Known about the structure:
The chain is an alpha+beta fold. Helix content is 29%, strand content 28%. Strands 10, 11, 12, 13, 14 and 15 form a 6-stranded antiparallel β-sheet that branches. The chain has a 5-stranded mixed β-sheet with strand order 2-1-3-4-16.
Amino acid sequence: MSSAPSAPAPRAWAVVGNSENRRVTRFLAAAGAAGAAPPRVVPWSDVLRDGGHAFADHETVRLDSPGENAEVDRALRGVDDPTRVEGSAIWYARFLAAVRSLRGGRRLDDPDELAVLFDKRRCHARLAAAGVPVPPSPTSGLARPVRGWDDIRAITGEPGFARVFVKPAHGSSGSGVLAVETGPAGRVRATTPVEVTPEGRLHNSLRMRRLVDERTIAGIVDALAPEGLHVERWLPKAALRGGAADLRVVVIAGRATHAVVRTSRHPLTNLHLGGSRGDLAEVVALAGPAWAEALEICERAAARFPGTLCVGVDLLPAVGWRRFAVGEVNAFGDLLPGLTGLPGSGAETMDTYAAQIDAVHRGVRGQDR
């Protein structure tokens, strides 16, 4: 007599991340609060050491950032100091290889989409091709390589590009970014968190600097150019209480669910670089009817990455709060501690991690690998 087929195993969570990291611990807390079984944590260090990892068919697999771990950073970037700016191209190749070494499970982060999300040039081109408003860029889609400072100088001499952002193509968290301004008589200055040591090494100091010596600026660009650089027109941002402002909008399963306003006296508004959280209610009031369009733009940007459950969209408001452009789309842009969802988003009482768990439990499908 044949036995009845066994029931399929209930779905379980697995997280690839750095187990000590607050991103992972916050996700575990959200899973516990939702009544889920404790997620299985697979450290990035194990994935890199073992050359991959296999997941069971019933596991839903979430990838989290490999950052903020010195051992993992050394393995991915090949540098001895986590504050070093160099090594982003090596990081990109090794990180994608590690992602592709994962097998099985139901995945919430598509490897091919991660390859685009972590290349600012390719991401810009994908958004522009879909009609998502983005800053003009001569490097979009790898169209124009930047070999060094002479190429930046040539770009800034073109109409509309006297002020540009120069970004490591595979960088994150503002590391290595320069806001470059050129003026009459060849004058140039750059605002950047990069500190150059006497030995010529580049470090992300987390403190903004204003450089006016062209040789110093050129040296930074020349050092980073072989790893890939992306250049965008510096769009004037809307102001909020005397500072430049932009937003990080989290989109989960196609819906804009969370938003934080970031303000700064400097061109870079990253919170860890000295930016401050602004009043979202004030921004919504200033934008008026355009606020709905702002969220729709973020959802259109996220729709270009349908195999990735959650992205963080950096939204640039123009002066007057009536027009918006997308600066970047971030694969790991959901670390917004203490922030609950937008009104009408369905995530009003949830943080970003709880909202992702809720989306999956409501039937948003991952991709089997």
